[in-house]
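Sequence design from tokenized structure. All designs in this work follow the same two-part layout: the structure record, then the generated sequence. An example of the structure record is given first.
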């Protein structure tokens, strides 16, 4: 026997309206469905595209598999140090989300630059020129806003 009476069920399910992001993702999924669904491949162009993508993926993964089967000397210890630096960065980055992005990436970058200094220098040069270009574009935009007012 029940000790309490059950309340009357007068609730109705009301679906929340879709946001613009959800509508955009839905449209994209509907547009891409013929290309991603394996059961919808009927014409020869879709089959050719599918075979081409499979060939590219198989080449990419086979090269990666071969590299991991015969790595260069000291690859796994270097990978371990760089990965451990990222884990330490996650541990040190308690608090804000920005810290959780910057600390692991920064420590992994420092670890990788210790083992691969020539690549780090080339990346730093490219990043420096990009940063200079962005700052110059920002300066020009602020200057044009300032002159307009």
């Amino acid at each position: 026997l029940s000790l309490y009476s059950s309340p009357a069920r007068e609730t109705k399910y009301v679906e929340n309206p879709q946001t613009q992001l959800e509508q955009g993702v839905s449209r994209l999924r509907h547009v891409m469905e013929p290309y991603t669904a394996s059961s919808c491949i009927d014409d020869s162009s879709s089959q050719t595209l599918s075979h081409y993508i499979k060939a590219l993926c198989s080449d990419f993964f086979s090269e990666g598999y071969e590299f991991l089967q015969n790595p260069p000397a000291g690859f796994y210890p270097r990978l371990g140090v760089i990965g451990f630096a990222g884990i330490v960065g996650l541990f040190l980055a308690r608090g804000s989300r920005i810290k959780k992005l910057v600390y692991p990436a920064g420590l992994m970058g420092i670890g990788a630059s210790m083992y691969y200094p020539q690549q780090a220098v080339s990346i730093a040069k490219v990043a420096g020129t990009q940063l200079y270009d962005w700052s110059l574009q920002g300066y020009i935009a602020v200057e044009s806003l300032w002159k307009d007012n």
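The mean pLDDT is 82. We note this feature because it recurs in several other targets discussed in the main text.
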